[in-house]
Amino acid sequence: MASPSLLLLGAGNMGGALLRAWLGKGAIAAAKSAVVDPNPSIPVLELCEAHGVAVNPAEDPGYDVCVLAVKPQMFASVLPTLDWPRIAETLFLSIAAGTTIETIGHLLAERAPGARVVRTMPSLPASVGRGVTLLCEGGRLRGGDRDVATALMAAAGETYWCRDEDHLDRVMGVTGCSPAYVFLLAEALTDAALAQGVGPADARRIAEASVTGAAAMLAQDGRPAAALRRSVTSPGGTTQAALSVLDDETEGLRPRVNAAVEAAYARARELAS
Ligand SMILES: NC(=O)C1=CN([C@@H]2O[C@H](COP(=O)(O)OP(=O)(O)OC[C@H]3O[C@@H](n4cnc5c(N)ncnc54)[C@H](O)[C@@H]3O)[C@@H](O)[C@H]2O)C=CC1
Ligand SMILES: O=C(O)[C@@H]1CCC=N1
């Protein structure tokens, strides 16, 4: 399919980030696409204006793809109200945490019986084309649907098809949630700089530059993270002393990150029920 016409339902943090990526890469047919959001932000309005994307159109001409990007808690009230010409032909992509393909199918059943649904889990760096999106499907897709979903999400960064929904729920703590872990690390480094007597503006500047510098090196160097970590860590030096705290086998970052990913999985299961 050439770039699809697309309806974005919900253009908040994540929907807006995806929209930015799609329009930047020409991945959607902007003039045939629309955003529906009762409270669109100024940047989203400016983006739509610049690319000729309709915002809250009075009439829906119909869309190849509809991306469901409202909060999971809104699905039950919003999905049954969706309607446009040939809605049963539209491919639905959900980005919501937890909500299952079966639930989405039920909520769309009246107007789009047998709807083809792809569940995805993008991540916020999609806004700069550096997201990671997990995808999975429930067995109803037609030929070409998988390629359409992959192409849309690849415009926002890396993609990975999970074997089923449970797999997606398990892995989302590694991808969709993890930008928050990295931002938290930047916050923690800022706090540590403050504790060592650096002023607030400089504390933030040197902490955030440390995180973005390491991330840029990881992206560009080609060596795996473990090799780069070793190249910072002089035997018997200061980093080794620091890592004896941060990389403790039972209380260090690795077991804590693993526990965080498990907590995200547990919450995804709760949101599904
Ligand atoms: N924020 C993130 O990093 C990620 C979020 N997600 C998923 O994305 C979805 C949205 O999350 P955020 O963007 O963070 O939330 P958000 O609160 O920033 O965006 C939700 C948007 O939905 C709009 N909205 C409310 N009622 C609506 C309606 N009736 N019709 C259309 N739009 C409506 C709101 O005005 C808002 O702009 C959630 O399902 C979440 O699980 C998935 C991956 C990452
Ligand atoms: O916190 C959430 O539920 C969403 C999904 C992944 C990132 N944000």
TrEMBL record:
Q: Where is the Pyrroline-5-carboxylate reductase catalytic N-terminal domain?
A: 8-98
| Keyword Isomerase included in the entry's annotation | no
Gene Ontology terms, MF aspect: pyrroline-5-carboxylate reductase activity
Query: Which positions in this protein are listed as binding NADP(+)?
Result: L9, G10, A11, G12, N13, M14, A69, V70, K71, P72
Keywords linked to the UniProt accession: Amino-acid biosynthesis, Cytoplasm, NADP, Oxidoreductase, Proline biosynthesis
Protein family membership: Belongs to the pyrroline-5-carboxylate reductase family.
Q: What is this protein called?
A: Pyrroline-5-carboxylate reductase
Can you name the source organism? Parvularcula dongshanensis
Q: What does the record give as the organism's lineage?
A: Bacteria, Pseudomonadati, Pseudomonadota, Alphaproteobacteria, Parvularculales
